[in-house]
From TrEMBL:
One Pfam family linked to the record: PAD_porph
InterPro entries according to UniProt: Peptidyl-Arg-deiminase_porph (IPR007466)
Protein name: Agmatine deiminase family protein
Keyword Metal-binding: no
Keywords from the UniProt entry: Hydrolase
Annotated transmembrane regions: none
GO biological process: putrescine biosynthetic process
Any one GO molecular-function label of the UniProt entry: protein-arginine deiminase activity
Superkingdom of the organism of origin: Bacteria
Length: 344
């Protein structure tokens, strides 16, 4: 039997804060730092309308710079907490804590090994980030469990009720020596889950995460799944995403009901220096009372926001300009990590 004293909350459950790390000249953002900071400022403004924001900064100078940027944008700095720690990059969905919550309001910061998406990039400082946050006292008395097995937060989705959704393409790249059954057992143990649902299809060009689930399909409350669709038969993604949609249509909730599916529109190709960028609308962020939706200066932006809002009824929908983010192959959800209510 699964230990139900801990579980991985769904993203739509109450949150204490959102955690981000600010880009600076020592990160891969250096070449386009000014452009990407506009997205981070917009994100900070959006999050702090609804809840606190914790910002990791590399040093005191960066903290002063960020405070000035946020103040100029009218952000309520009383809702912002800064933590000074070293980091390689700013993708905190993947290097930040995966927080399990106990029925007695206890918490466990689950700290899987971060390898820079299978060794593609240096990640030593990012792999130590969770331990650094714990040492800095960010999470009070929450337990810290290190698991020496590569997994990124963007690679898993939780419905908060014992079901995990993930992709075979990503995890077989991280662990080619392990079977699906072996990986399922590790995920169930590490995340205190009852079951793991696997997708075999789905990818985005320009995505170096090897098909993270948070770029493809997301759980929503009430037995819903929001997913990135592609209706353009001439697009190279069409067949793969059609197969993914067919897979999703076969999945059922824990009580045996088919999921209600919400297909998202497809943004027109965004090309940078001959390279297609991964513009996924599925990479949105849920916060208290709202859902923050990526916008790419595309005619599909508003329809994507409408559909995501319909899948998350009762929440304000806020569009955040994310075109600068996809230059580095990620989007809104990838740079954030929510923290469940009560932990911070």
């Amino acid at each position: 039997m699964t230990d139900h004293s801990l579980r991985l909350p769904a993203e739509w459950e109450p949150q204490a804060a959102v955690l981000i790390a600010w880009p600076h000249a020592g990160t891969d953002w250096a070449e386009r730092l000014a452009a990407v900071e506009t997205t981070y400022v917009a994100l900070a403004a959006a999050v702090t309308r609804f809840q606190p924001l914790i910002i990791v900064v590399a040093d005191a100078a960066l903290r002063t710079h960020v405070q000035s940027q946020l103040r100029d944008a009218g952000v309520d700095l009383a809702k912002v907490r800064f933590v000074e720690l070293p980091y390689d990059d700013t993708w905190l969905r993947d290097s930040g804590p995966i927080t399990l919550k106990g029925g007695d309001a206890s918490f466990q910061l689950t700290d899987f090994r971060f390898t820079g998406w299978g060794g593609k990039f240096g990640a030593a400082q990012d792999d130590a980030l969770v331990a650094g946050l714990v040492q800095a006292g960010v999470f009070g008395h929450a337990a810290h469990r290190r698991i020496d097995w590569a997994l990124e937060g963007g690679g898993i989705e939780s419905d908060g009720d014992g079901t995990i959704l993930t992709t075979w393409r990503c995890l077989v790249q991280r662990h080619p020596e392990q079977s699906r059954d072996e990986m399922t057992a590790i995920l169930r143990d590490g995340l205190h889950a009852d079951r793991v649902l696997w997708l075999d299809y789905g990818y985005l060009e320009g995505d170096d995460t090897d098909a993270h689930i948070d770029t493809l399909a997301r759980f929503a409350p009430g037995g819903r799944i929001v997913y990135q669709a592609c209706a353009d038969a001439s697009d190279p993604h069409h067949d793969e995403l059609q197969r993914m949609a067919a897979e999703l249509a076969t999945l059922c909730t824990a009580d045996g009901h088919p999921y209600q599916l919400y297909p998202l529109p497809w943004a027109q190709p965004i090309i940078d220096d001959g390279r297609r960028l991964a513009a996924s609308y599925a990479n949105y962020l849920i916060v208290n009372g709202a859902v923050l939706v990526p916008a790419y200066d595309d005619e599909a932006d508003d329809e994507a926001a409408r559909i995501i809002g319909a899948a998350h009824p009762g929440r304000v929908v806020v569009q955040v300009p994310c075109r600068p983010l996809i230059w580095q192959n990620g989007s809104l959800h990838c740079i954030t990590m929510q923290l469940p209510a009560g932990i911070a």
